[in-house]
Amino acid sequence: MENVQGPTDQPSPDKAYSHQYKHAMGLFEDALHEYHKASPDKTHQKEEFVEVMNKTIHVMDEIASQVIKSKLQKEKESKLEDDFHKFLNDHKNKNQKELAKDHQALAQDVNELRSSLHNK
């Protein structure tokens, strides 16, 4: 019988981002350490360490951005759900407007995501 792994075997996105961030931070620290160890006349080697540090900073920024976007997305989805329940309980114009605003914000995020995927 085969061992079939289900979706619960996958690390949560937050854990995956944390692991990636720590890995990038470790690479940055290693490059910084090696930069300081390199003799002053090894300018080409030092430039390579600076390039590694620059790239890892970029990776860490991207990871942080994704975590923030993920949390904001969850907050927007939660607000949409809360406002939907308010709308179900009371069909007031105010609740309809809030629900429409929540939906519009999520739709805009989806459109931006599609646009960024097409531009890559």
Structural topology:
Elements: H1 13-37, H2 43-89, H3 93-118
Describe the structure.
- The two termini are 42 Å apart.
- The chain is elongated.
- It is mainly alpha-helical and 120 residues long.
- The chain has three helices and no strands.
- The chain has one domain (12-118).
Specify the structural class: mainly alpha
Mean pLDDT: 84
Number of domains: 1
Order of helices and strands: HHH
Please report the total strand number as a whole number.
0
* Percent helix range: over 70%
| Amount of beta strand | under 5%
Largest sheet: none
- How big is the Rg? 23 Å
Coarse shape: elongated
In short:
The chain has 120 residues and is mainly α.
Features:
120 residues; mainly alpha; 82% helix; elongated; single chain
